[in-house]
Amino acid sequence: MRHTRHHLEDDIGRMEAGSSLLETDADTRAEYRRVVAKHSEDYLANLSDGLAYVQDGYGPDVSDEMLRPGEPIPINDLVTYVENRVNKPGINMTSGGLMGFIPGGGVFESALGDYMAAVANRYAGMFYASPGAVRMENAMIRWAGEMIGYTDHFGGSLTSGGSMANLTAITTARHAMGIRNRDAESTVIYTTKRTHHSVFKALKVSGLHECIVRKVDLDASYRIDVKKLEQQIIDDKKAGLKPFLCIINAGSTDIGAVDQPIPVAKVTQRYNIWLHIDAAYGGFFMLTRWGKEFLKGIEQADSVILDPHKGLFLPYGTGIVLVKKASHLIDTFKYHASYLQDAESMTAEESPTDVSAELSKHFRGMRMWLPLKIHGVAPFRDALDEKLLLTRYLWDNIREMGFDTGPYPDLTIVIFRYNRSGVDTEALNRRIFEDIRQDGRIFLSSTNLDGVFNLRVAILSFRTHKRHIDLLLELLKKSLQKHLPNVGKM
Ligand SMILES: *Cc1c(COP(=O)(O)O)cnc(C)c1O
Question: What are the distances in angstroms from CA 230 to CA 46, 195, 235, 358, 480?
């Protein structure tokens, strides 16, 4: 039904009165900021003596009125809800005691970057929309690419995390190598026995799971066995198959072992295979001298991913994909849209949308740029060096206590378990794990390595220092004494 002109203007007026409430005035904004800032400061102030794990909030909770959008609620009530019901239960990723999974911590300045990015809401997908935002994002990509040793003509984008970065790299590899769907059954992908599951998910999402996937064995140091890799490639070629893609770890998530890029790259180059290095965990150790040594040759990869929300300690939501030849990314992702035709003459720099699957996106560059510029790079490097040293300190000490460990750590992950003849090893180590979880000040995870239960420590939060490692050692000792009373006397 058409409005009469008179009614139309009346209705517009009424709706404007309601919708204008979204344009919050300066006093109200100041009040919101005060409440949120107080909440954030209280949170950070309680962090150092807080818990890394709170076993709460896991029960059913379907009828929660505070969650369902509806009537307006005062900000104080909402912030109180966040404080009690969101920030308390579960694993505290900001705690220095967090040593499970892969920590990162979440540097504060990133939140301010997000705040500025969201207030101005610059459109970071296209250079035409915001040359400044795109320049900032591209500068982060350039910095990361140069850090790993890429030189000219590389490209990349800021993603939501490592999983999407892997997906972007794998899709690019497929396109660049001309793999068609009908080729899948004769095309071979090489991973390792310890490849991260996000890689297999990316293979599935991109349709490449129908290829033949070889999970190559590891050597005694849990790194890819390069001889076996090459032998498998030779066998596959003899059988008339097409080796296409090889994916290795620069820091496996389970054990932290770094597959050595140089010997692997020699093989992949010899057989014209795309080499992808998953450095989501280990990539930023390239800022350190030790890391540069360990990851030497990483720049030979055709694509690499890193996770600033791990090794650069940013809050969750930032990954990086880098591709050695930017043209491969552009060939894969650049599209033309008639309603965006005005943008095309305004492209002094590559637009993120032309090198990724996203169009409208979070302006992630600001949350990475602000902390790096406020602090400079040095404290990030020192923090990573500190984590490497803390890991070796932990490794030495738990061996002294009688734990069996994996090999000397490449990076900052240690797996260990207590094993003595006459004790039920699995039950004992599960009890130790449970004791530490119940205490809550330190949070570990566990991993199943070739059918064996192992305790696992990953040290990567900028807030983790020697006192946290000493506390962990104390907790381990106490737990051992409780379950094996004569251990303490050794
Ligand atoms: C964490 C991790 C991923 C996945 O990254 P997300 O940021 O969690 O999506 C992939 N590979 C490795 C080696 C990782 O450690």
Answer: 53, 18, 9, 36, 45
* Overall average pLDDT of the 52-74 stretch: 86
For the residues of 254-281, what is the DSSP string, one character each?
TT-PBPPHHHHHHHHHHTT-EEEEEETT
Tokens of 99: 């040593």
Of 106, 74, 100, 35, residue with least CA distance to 307 = 106
State the burial class of residue 370 (Cβ atoms within 10 Å of its Cβ: 0-12, 13-18, 19+): buried
CB 92, CB 100: distance < 8 Å: no
> Alpha-carbon distance 83 to 91, whole Å?
14
- Do strands 53-54 and 90-91 pair parallel, antiparallel, or not at all (unpaired)? antiparallel
Cα–ligand 1 centroid distance for 13 (angstroms):
51
For residue 198, report the distance from its CA to the centre of ligand 1, in Å.
7
* DSSP H helices in 75-130: 75-81, 108-120
pLDDT at 486: 66
Asked if residue 156 lies in contact with residue 321, where contact means CB atoms within 8 angstroms, the answer is: yes
| Region of 272 on the Ramachandran plot (φ > 0 left; ψ -120 to 50 alpha; else beta) | left
| Ligand 1 site, residue 428, Cβ cutoff 6 A | no
Using the atom order of ligand 1, give the atom closest to the CA of residue 251.
Answer: 13
- Asked whether the beta carbons of 384 and 254 are under 8 A apart, the reply is no
Mean pLDDT of 435-453: 93
Q: Which amino acid is at 197?
A: H
Distances from the Cα of 293 to the Cα of 381, 396, 410, angstroms = 15, 22, 11
State whether the beta carbon of 281 lies less than 6 angstroms from ligand 1: yes
Average pLDDT over residues 278-286: 98
Q: Cα separation of 83 and 248, whole Å?
A: 41
Q: What are phi and psi of 54, to 5 degrees?
A: -125, 115
Please provide the average confidence, as pLDDT, over all residues in the chain: 95
Is ligand 1 within 6 A of the CB of residue 102?
yes
Give start and end residues of each alpha helix (H) in 304-344: 308-311, 326-333
CB-ligand 1 contact for 106 (6 Å cutoff): no
The pLDDT assigned to 487 comes to 57
Residue 298 and residue 24: Cα distance in Å, rounded?
49
Instruction: Indicate which residue's Cα is closest to atom 6 of ligand 1.
Output: 162
pLDDT of residue 5: 79
243 pocket-lining for ligand 1 (C-beta < 6 Å): no
Compute the Cα dihedral for 154, 160, 164, 168 and give only its sign. Answer: negative
